[in-house]
Amino acid sequence: MVSFYGTEITSRLLLGTALYPSPQVLADAVKASETQIVTVSLRREGGPEGAGQSFWQLIKGLGVKVLPNTAGCHTVKEAVTTANMAREVFETNWIKLELIAQNDSLCPDVVALVEAARILSDEGFNVFPYCTEDLSVAERLLRAGCEVLMPWGAPIGTGLGLNNLYGLEAMCAHFDDVPLIIDAGIGVPSHAARAMEMGFDAVLLNTAVAKAGDPVVMAQAFAKALEAGRMGYEAEPMLPNQMAAPSTPVLGKAVF
Amino acid sequence: MRVTILGAGVAGLTAATELVARGVDVEIVERGAAPGAQSCSWYAGGMLAPECEADMAEPIVVELGREALAWWQKYVPDIVQCGSIVVSTGRDRNELKRFGARTKCHQWLKQKELAALEPDLGERFAEALFFKDEAHMDPRAALLALTQHLCEQGVKFHYGATLDNVTSGGKIIDARGLAARDCLPQLRGVRGEMLVVKCDDVQLSRPVRLAHPRFPVYIVPRGEGLYMIGATQIESERGGGVSAKSMVDLINAAYAVHPAFGEAEIVETGAQLRPAFPDNLPRVNWVNDRLHINGLFRHGYLLSPACARMAADILCRSNQPAEFMDEDHNQWATA
Q1: Residue B318, exposed/middle/buried by CB under 10 A (0-12, 13-18, 19+)?
Q2: Are the C-beta atoms of residues A17 and A219 closer than 8 Å to each other?
Q3: What is the 3-state secondary structure (H, E, C) of chain B?
Q4: What is the three-class DSSP state of A108?
Q5: What is the reported pTM?
Q6: How close is the nearest chain A Cα to the Cα of B154, in Å?
Q7: What is the ipTM of this complex?
Q8: B119 against A255, higher pLDDT
Q9: Is CB count within 10 Å lower at the N or C end of chain A?
Q10: Is A31 a catalytic site residue?
Q11: What is the pLDDT of residue B335?
C-alpha cells in the first residue's frame, strides 16, 4: 500500500490516457491493469471553452481517480491556469505538474517547476511534479510544498527505461520517506520492475502501453511486473558477490 | 419503398447511392445550403488506404475498407490507384519499423526503388514502405460526383432543410454525423485540422505518410501542385479554424518530408469534428425508428461504402444484422 497526499492506493501503476487506438481500448487497458489512477492532459485536448468535455466524461466514467496534468505547458502562468481549469473540470486538488523546457527532449524546466509548485501548493493543490533526478531540485520541490516526487526514467515517449541508475538510486536513498513515482521513459515491463526493486513507490507510463500492439495485454504485463518488482524489493534481495557461491555444498563430493 | 436520408455528407450520399442502385425511392435532407463545408467529409484526405489504417485501427476497418475502392470506382472518375508510401526521418526509424510490423500488403523500398517511384523523396529517405494497391481521390469531387449521379437518378435534395420541412412518411436513415448526438449520446467529436498548400517545387504522385512519434501526418497530392496536409486528431470539440500549434505541426511534418514545402503557399485551412463512438468504430443500427449510420471517425471514405451496403441490406432484405451491430453501446459505462 502506498499513499499520495493521504489517498491510499494498492496498484502501483499510473496510466496516461493519450495515444490509444480508441477510448474503448484505453478503458479496457485500465480495467485489465487494475490501475487506480489515470492522468489526463487538459491543455492539448482542452481549449478555452473546455472543449474536451466529451473525452473528459469518458475519463470520469472509468471509475478511477483522475490526476490531471499540465502537459504541453512551457511557462509558470500557463501551468497555473491549466491547473486551475483542471481543478474545476475534475473536481480534484491533484495536479501533475509538467513544465517543459525544451521541445525536442521534453525535459522539465526545473527552475520554473519549483516556482509553479510553490504557487500551486499555496493555492491548495496537491502537486505531483515531473522532475529530473537532481537532488537539489527535489529538495526545493519539497520545500515548495510537494509531498510526492516524480523523477523521469528517460525523456517522455522514448521508452529508453531508467537512464541514470546511479541518480535514481541516490534519490531513493535520499528521500526514503517521500513517495517517489517514476514518470516517463518506461518502455518495457522489466524497466518498471527494476524501478520497483530499487524502491520506487509507483510508475507512471503511457506510450509503452498505448502504442503496444496489444495495449490491454501490455497493461496487464506492466501490472504483473510492478507487483513482482515490489515483492522483490520487500523480500530484501540478496546482495551481489564477487565470488561464486554454490547453493549446494561441494564438500565430500567426488571431484574429478 | 421510400427512404428519407438526413445528411448529405459521405455517409448519407453513399447510402443514397446504394439504395438507388437497388431501386429504392430516395430523397435527401441536408441542413447546409449546398454540398460542402458543413460536412466533415469535405475536409477529408480522400485516401483509400485500408492497409495503412491497420497501424492504428481494428482489423475490421481494414477488412471492410478493402471494399471501398471498387465501390468508388463505379461512381467517381479520376480515382488514382498508384499506391501509398510511408517514410520516417532517420531518427524515427523505429516508428517506420513499427508501422511495417503492424501492417500487411506492403513492400520495403530501398532508396533507389523509392527514387524510381517518387524522385523527390528518393534523395531524402533511405527507405520507405510501399502499399502498391492503395488509391486516392479528391473527396470533394467524389461528393459532387455522387450528388450529380443521384440528381440524374431523380433523387430530390432538400438543402437548408430539416426533417420537419419534409413530410415523407417513408423510412428514415440518419447520417447527420455529430449532429445526431441528440439520438446517439455516446457520439463524441474528434477534432481534425488540415491545410491545402500549393507547391510547384515538389512533385508527388501518391499519398505520403510520415511515421512520427508525435505528429503522424499525411500529404495527399490533389494535382496541379496542390497538396492536402492532414490531419490532426485531437480529443476536443472546439469549433473554429485551425489552431496555430496544429498549423505549425502540420507544416513542420510536411517540411520534414520535403523542405520545399516550407516555401509553399497556403491555399486553405480547415477544421471539423469527426463523429466517433468510444471504440472509434462505426455503427449501422436502429435507434427508435431511424436507421443510423454514424461514427465513421477518420474513415469516412474508407468505410462508408461498407456502411451503405449494410444499411441497404437492412432496409431491402429482412433486417439482416450489420457487422457493426453487435457492439454493446453501454459497454463503456461499465468498463
Answers
A1: exposed
A2: no
A3: CEEEEECCCHHHHHHHHHHHHCCCEEEEEECCCCCCCCCHHHHCCCEECHHHHCCCCCHHHHHHHCCHHHHHHHHCCCCECCCEEEECCHHHHHHHHHHHHHCCCCEEEEHHHHHHHCHHHHCCCCEEEEECCCEECCHHHHHHHHHHHHHHCCCEEEECCCHHHCCCCCEEEECCHHHHHHCCCCCEEEEEEEEEEECCCCCCCCCEEECCCCCCEEEEEEECCEEEEECCCECCCCCCCCCHHHHHHHHHHHHHHCHHHHHCEEEEEEEEEEEECCCCCCEEEEECCEEEEECCCCCHHHHHHHHHHHHHHHHHCCCCCCCCCCCCCCHHHHC
A4: strand
A5: 0.87
A6: 40
A7: 0.79
A8: B119
A9: C
A10: no
A11: 32
Predicted confidence (pLDDT) per residue in A140-154, tens digit: 999 999 999 999 999
Average pLDDT, integer, range A7-27: 93
Task: Out of B56, B238, B332, name the one closest to residue A21 (CB).
Answer: B56
Residue B200: its pLDDT value, please? Answer: 94
Helix (H, G, I), strand (E, B) or coil at A112: helix
Q: What is the pLDDT of residue B332?
A: 41
- For A12, the enclosing helix (H) or strand (E) is none
Cβ contact (<8 Å) for A23 and B333? Answer: no
Chain A environment of B335 (Cβ under 8 Å): 24, 27-28, 30-31, 61-63
H helices present in chain A, as ranges: 23-33, 53-60, 76-90, 110-122, 135-143, 165-174, 189-198, 207-210, 215-234
Q: Are B166 and B158 in contact (CB under 8 A)?
A: yes
pLDDT digits (tens, 9 = 90+) for B222-250: 999 999 999 888 888 888 899 998 999 99
Please tell me which of the candidates A24, A44, A47 has its beta carbon nearest to residue B332: A24
pLDDT tens track for A67-78:
999 998 999 999
Q: Which of A65, A96, A211, A253 is catalytic?
A: A96
Nearest to B236 among A21, A24, A52 (CB): A52
Closest chain B CA to residue A157: B213
Listed range (A13-22, A42-51, A139-148) with the worst mean pLDDT: A42-51
